[in-house]
Amino acid sequence: DVRHGTILTLEDISVSFDGFKALNALNLYIGVGELRCIIGPNGAGKTTLMDVITGKTRPGSGQAWFGETLDLTQMSEVEIAQAGIGRKFQKPTVFEALSVFENLELAQKTNKSVWASLRAKLSGEQRERIDEVLATIRLETARHRPAGLLSHGQKQFLEIGMLLMQDPQLLLLDEPVAGMTDAETEFTAELFKRLAGQHSLMVVEHDMGFVGSIADHVTVLHQGSVLAEGSLDEVQGNERVIEVYLGR
Ligand code: ADP
Questions:
Q1: What sequence ranges are listed for the domain ABC transporter (predicted)?
Q2: 179: which of 57, 62, 94, 156 is 20 to 30 A away, CA to CA?
Q3: Rounded to whole angstroms, how far apart are CA atoms 182 and 27?
Q4: What is the phi-psi region of residue 199: left when phi exceeds 0, alpha when psi lies from -120 to 50, beta otherwise?
């Protein structure tokens, strides 16, 4: 069974926009606990791929499985998020007027309104989980700071923390280190390596230095299909990849 041991199985996925194939018979298998990087030139289909996984875009054909049993093509965006797939967009979207702690508090799985959940008393267990995530994203000392006063990188870490509050099994991250300082990029690499194993991560990234520092497995997308897969060294030495990137 191809789904055994995979957190994500995509087979023969195609997505067309007015006859243009943004994804073209794409196959992708991500193992449980894996840290996978997806690279590829602009227009390769990376965003469409994440949209299919999160249910934002329905594939015209193909199969998409989360774990061994959940058919993503039959689930709504909300159901997919609740099932354990968390997505982080490139631009951080935190509640700027609220403190770091309150942002994490709001991100906890809850069906209460924003105001009701800020008024509700936290259980000891919930408080512990927030402290744990604060330590993971290294924002313990900024816990009472309004999120609007954080640096760009810290806002990104807070948003990752907000995703972690939902206990996702699979995290999708879109260009996480764009605009970060070198130190923030280094911390992100260390953080992702720490999260892998316990979670599975799929990272779309242009920064090859960063890709090289985190991923043992890289997938190159081109024209909506997988062009190459392997270690960064392997794919960077691949003739077809060189052609696509250098236009030779
Ligand atoms: P990437 O994220 O790798 O840059 P995208 O997934 O955004 O690539 O886009 C793949 C291709 O599909 C591009 O040529 C893009 O113009 C096209 N595309 C993406 N979304 C739409 C849409 N909603 N309507 C029409 N074309 C789209």
A1: 8-248
A2: 57
A3: 34
A4: beta
Whether 121 contacts 141, CB under 8 Å: no
Q: Is the CB of 41 under 6 A from ligand 1?
A: no
Q: Give the number of the atom of ligand 1 that is nearest the alpha carbon of residue 45.
A: 6
Residue 104 structural domain: 6-246
Residue 33, phi-psi category: left (phi > 0), alpha (psi -120 to 50), beta (remainder)? left
CATH of the domain at 139: 3.40.50.300
Report the domain count for the chain: 1
Kindly state if the Cβ of 185 falls inside 6 Å of ligand 1. Answer: no
What is the Cα–Cα distance from 12 to 25, expressed in whole angstroms? 4
Instruction: Show the beta-strand stretches assigned E in the chain.
Output: 6-17, 20-31, 35-39, 61-66, 70-71, 85-88, 170-174, 200-204, 217-222, 225-230
Q: Which residue's CA lies nearest to atom 26 of ligand 1? A: 17
| Atom 22 (ligand 1) nearest CA | 17
Asked if the structure places residue 1 within a domain, the reply is no
The model's pTM: 0.93
Q: Which of 20, 173, 221 to mutate to test the pocket of ligand 1 (most atoms within 8 A of CB)?
A: 20
Residue 133 tokens, joined: 């995530």
Q: Is the pLDDT of residue 56 over 70?
A: yes
44 within ligand 1 shell (Cβ under 6 A): yes
Atom of ligand 1 nearest to the CA of 41: 3
> What φ, ψ does residue 164 adopt, rounded to 5°?
-65, -30
User: pLDDT tens digits for 13-42?
Assistant: 999 999 999 999 999 999 999 999 999 999
